[in-house]
Amino acid sequence: MNTKSSTHLSFDSPPSPNGDPHSVPIALTIAGSDPTSGAGIQADLKTFAAQNVYGLSVITATTAQNTMGVQAVYPVSHEVIERQCQTLITDIPIRFIKTGMIYDSDSIRFIANFIVENNLVAVVDTPFMSSGGKALMEKAGMTAYLDVLIPRAEIITPNIMEAEMLSGCKITSKDDVEQAAEVLISRGAKSVLIKGGHLDSSESPDYYKSKTESFWFDGLRIPMTHAHGTGCTLSAAICANLALGNEMPESIRNSKEYITNALQDSFSIGEGRRILAHLPQYSLKEII
Question: From CA 84, how far away is CA 104, in angstroms rounded?
Answer without folding.
Answer: 16
